[in-house]
């Protein structure tokens, strides 16, 4: 914990150097608590949408140190080997997009595959497939929900960040996209 007196003095010094009005430690702490409450509220709203849509089996929502994490299992989101968002899950992605459109948060979309090898074609490896899946989700949120594209990062992790042991029974669980609102 920083010494509030020294912290305020440092802030004042920086503000003076930049020609700006200084902000007190107390003001910063109040603003941080309000931001955390707003973020927690958004997480609860996302959970409500998942519950109302009866999508708990395909979407897990968690608020953690990364942010609000929506883990959407791949079978619900994409056909095997493909990167086109299915019609059944698209309304959820649009709803999340409309919610975050009004808020200042950054959005990271992570694509993951299972450990099955691709069969060539459009995606020669799981790297390309996982990145294409992340980009497809970003495309829906930008083009159809109207979220600013500058707010996104799309990342492909292939099969190298599994949530579950790489077994045949767990393939669908590891084949997923995570939307992280941070």
Would you give an account of this structure?
Strands 1-2-5-3-4 form a five-stranded mixed β-sheet. The chain is elongated, with a radius of gyration of 20 Å. It has helices spanning 4-18, 25-52, 74-77, 90-101, 126-144, 171-174, and strands at 59-64, 67-73, 107-112, 152-156, 176-181. The relative contact order is 0.15. The model has no long low-confidence stretch (mean pLDDT 83). The protein is built from six helices and five strands; from the N terminus they run H-H-E-E-H-H-E-H-E-H-E. Strand 1 and strand 2 form a beta hairpin. Helix content is 45%, strand content 16%. With 182 residues, it is α+β, with helices and mostly antiparallel strands.
Task: For this entry, give a set of tags.
5-stranded mixed β-sheet, single chain, 5 strands, 6 helices, 182 residues, elongated, alpha+beta
């Amino acid at each position: 914990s920083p010494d509030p007196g020294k912290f305020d003095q440092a802030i004042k010094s920086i503000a003076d150097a930049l020609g700006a009005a200084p902000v007190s430690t107390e003001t910063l702490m109040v603003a941080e608590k309000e931001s955390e409450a707003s973020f927690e509220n958004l997480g609860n709203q996302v959970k409500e949408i998942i519950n109302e849509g009866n999508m708990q089996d395909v979407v897990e929502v968690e608020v953690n140190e990364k942010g609000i994490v929506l883990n959407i299992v791949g079978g619900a989101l994409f056909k095997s080997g493909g990167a086109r968002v299915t019609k059944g899950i698209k309304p959820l992605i649009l709803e999340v997009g409309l919610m975050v459109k009004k808020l200042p948060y950054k959005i990271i979309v992570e694509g993951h595959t299972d450990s099955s090898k691709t069969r060539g074609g459009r995606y020669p490896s799981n790297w390309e497939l996982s990145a294409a899946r992340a980009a497809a989700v970003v495309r829906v949120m930008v083009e159809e929900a109207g979220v600013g594209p500058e707010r996104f990062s799309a990342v492909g992790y292939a099969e190298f960040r599994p949530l579950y042991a790489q077994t045949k029974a767990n393939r669908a669980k590891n084949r997923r996209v995570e939307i992280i609102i941070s």
